[in-house]
Every structure is written in C-alpha cells, then in structure tokens.
Amino acid sequence: VHSQVCIIFSDFGKMQNVCNLLTEKLGTSVTISPPHFYHTPEAVDTLRRQVCVAAVGNTQRKAQEVCRLFGQALGKPLLIREEETKEWGGHIDSHLPNSPDSLTLQERIQNATAYASCRVFAVFEIKGKENRRNKLL
C-alpha cells in the first residue's frame, strides 16, 4: 500500500524537524521528496509594505542628518510618495541548466528567496532651532 502525504509549512525549521522525525521513526519505508518553495500573495504583500516602510524610515533619517548638518530640526512630513518598487527572485527559474530535482536544498532556498526594493520621495518641514539664550530670556 502506497500513500502520498503533502504538507504545507510556513516555518522552514518545523519542516526540517518533521522530515527528520518521519525518517527516524519510519526509516526506509518513507520517501521524502525535495520541498517546493513558494510565496503566498499575503507574504509578498507584507514584504512590499515592509520594504516601503523601511525606505521611508531611511529617508527620514537621512533628512535628519542633513538638517543637523545645517543646524536645523526636521519637522513633520509634508509629502511621501512611493516612486518605484522592484521585486526579483522568489521562484525557481525554468531556464536553469539543472532540473529543479537536481538542485541542492541550499540552491532551492537561494532561488526561491524573494527580494524587493522601494524608492520613495519625501518632503519634510524644516524647523529652525531656537537659540538657547533666547529661551532663557
């Protein structure tokens, strides 16, 4: 009697633990196929949001540094616009010389890793720093 079980994991470590446990308990009576990696639409959307938020944070920190250089204080954002988002990776390319079954687990992970970048445009209010002597008077 043959049976096939397909399990979807969202945690790579748990997947490895379950595979190791099955192999340990069932020995040669079980065959574990190489994993197939994919990204859910929700995971890709979360990645896009995280990258955009990080880009806005980086822009704000750079603007703060420039303001400090000129003795000014950075105020509130007046405009934040997402200019460009790029995504790459996240799949096993079909044009690879090796078939997906011949790839090592590390190569599969590397090919399935998704990357994203985001370019933002931001305009911030600039506040002049008050002189400390004026505050004391």
From TrEMBL:
It is found in: Cytoplasm; Nucleus. It holds the Pfam family SIMPL. GO terms for biological process: immune response; positive regulation of canonical NF-kappaB signal transduction. One of its GO terms (cellular component) is nucleus. Its main location: cytoplasm. GO terms for molecular function: kinase activity. Keywords: Cytoplasm, Kinase, Nucleus, Receptor, Transferase. Belongs to the IRAK1BP1 family. This is Interleukin-1 receptor-associated kinase 1-binding protein 1. It comes from Spheniscus mendiculus.
